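User: Okay, second chain of the day. Same drill as before: sequence in, structure tokens out.
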Amino acid sequence: MGIEDHKPASEELLDVLVAEGVVVPEVADSVRSRQRDTWVPLGKILRQKGSLSMGQLVELLQLQSKNPGLRIGEIALGRKFCTRAQIEDALRTQRDLSPHVLDLIAEAQGVEADKLARALGRYVRTLEARIQTIPVEPRAD
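Assistant: Same drill. Structure tokens below.
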């Protein structure tokens, strides 16, 4: 299974926290719902920043609907609607505007801090092991 085949990190983390008994499934579902409700789409951010026109955004969304595996940022770069710097800036804004799953877990009732810390330590070690298996392409400097 390649990296692109994995669930989003927040989903995977919630699954781990449920499996380890840190949170009950109902809390995880509530966190997922709150995360979905607060997520700001990249296209909307690019549009608000003036990096895309409404016509370009509509075109990107149409292209994405035909190729659901592609991300809006990738398509915008490919169509030369945005620069890499504009996409990276919009992604930073998206992360800043959207609460992290851990922020939402911390607000949940009944989460034991020590259980959470141990589970996060194990999860980080899993991610580190996964990262070590990613092939590194030589830089073309």
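The two ends are 30 Å apart (CA to CA).

User: Thanks, on to the next one.
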